[in-house]
Amino acid sequence: MSVCSAQSDCGFNREPDCCASLGELRPSSDKTIFYQIPLPDDGPPKPYPVRFVYNWSPTASAWVLSSTYPAFSTPSNSSTKEYVKMPFSVDNQSKQGIIESSQWTKIVKVLTSSKIKTSTELVAVIKDYNPSMARMSFNVLRTLIDDCYSEVEKDLFFTSTLPKMIALTLELPKFIRQPIPILKQRTNHSLFFSQQQIASLLCNGFFCTFPEHRQAKLQDFSFAKLFSHPNDERFTRKLEKLKCIINYFQRVVSDPPKGVVSFERRYLADNEITNWSSSNYNLKRICVCPKGAIETHGFGMLQADFANKYVGGGVLRSGLVQEEIRFVINPELMASMLFTEVLLENEALLITGTEQFNKYSGYGDTFLYDGNYYDPTPTDEWGRRYTKIVAMDASYFPADKVRNQYRKGCIDRELIKAYVAFMERRKLDPKNRCAVATGNWGCGVYRGDPQLKSLIQLIAASLNEKDLVYFTFGDFNLSTNMNKIVTSLAEKNVSAGQLYQFLLDYGSYVSSLDHDQEMEPLFDYIERKFLS
């Protein structure tokens, strides 16, 4: 293991420079592709299949095709597959008295017949086909349009952006021509969408057209809660997030993006879990950066999203920490909320190819939208930007149980999570594996110990033969202490298995203390007991 403390470039592997060929992309049992391949030379990818898929027979070996439009019914599942209920599903019905009618027909009628010129009219249109939202204020949306936009910006929004958003919303049956499988727990599966298809899905989220799914394992995919908030200190959070999202829509409706994005659920089966303590893998290189950000200085690397187990966290509510910020500067990430079940302890979600549309400053209550960002990231041979973001949720520790994180079961849980997040499903030579860009994962409000989390992630990266770039986000004391401990680990040629044993030994020490007895910091304990 070697150590680096340079902020700008540690010389670690970055994509595309380190990449091996991806090979040919084909639909398979673990890949669902929603666009035609090969990709066109110019313009957005065309939807796949050519004709509309409306039903799935559990005993059939292929999709049943229909020339009617739209004629989509939620598939009658096999025992293992479930699908997203779409706004235009024939079983998406609205009820007036005892009469049921197609909700999509009503949505189309309302959106096409309304000439929206004010925020009041926009809110009225959304509530027209969503009577359950009648009492919601939509005050965040109103404030953005009425108080934040200049007259020129209002005119642009109502005469250009909004009509194009409506058109993109209603084109959803044209863009999505087969059912979207839910990325279910305990499965390895990838979904491939064009950026244009994602834009249509997100437009439908904005106009609140998706039916309520009533599934506890899925996020709500309606923007309604983002549009409304009490007038308290978190009101501005939603306002600034909405600025980012509207800017994204202004960009994609005026210049349709041409790339693609993949969403890969990763599941680590019990028989794939390594015996950590017996591992002889050498610790990989680590670069500790007191300044910089994962999304900028970690370009071309596997970038950690400090996720909620419900991917996306509170992005459509009042949340605004690392995950939510990443989701509003790269809004295509939000599509994952539509079809990703809550992550289990041995799962992660890898999202490849999203485009950054927004700049920002601040964090939490100080977050501000800071204008357009034009993403220069090149694309791979499958049409995805070389931007890999992996959602990995950490454990939460209540204030009275913070010391539980040093127990073996808790250490193993975090190590399994980081391992599946950093792993490669396809065989790759280590020289072709990009480094991991991460930081204080699960610290802050989750009360994780940065010293413990940094070493857990170093072990996980080393077991996957990947270097690690660790951002401490301005914590110079942590940077100094990390550089000291990893230098000592390198000098003693400590293996990943040995470091894991050090953590377990420290856990035994912590459990031997009285509740009110002061703990020796982890780094100091390892240095004193094992490295001096």
Automatic annotation (TrEMBL):
Species the sequence originates in: Tetranychus urticae
Gene assigned in the entry: 107371355
Signal sequence interval, chain numbering: none
Taxonomic superkingdom: Eukaryota
Keyword Hydrolase: yes
Domain PARG catalytic Macro: 274-478
Domain PARG helical span(s) in chain numbering: 150-265
Enzyme class, first EC level, given as a word: hydrolase
Catalytic site positions: D305, E323, E324
Binding positions (substrate): N308, Q322, Y363
Name of protein: poly(ADP-ribose) glycohydrolase
Its EC number(s): 3.2.1.143
Any one Gene Ontology cellular component term annotated for this protein: cytoplasm
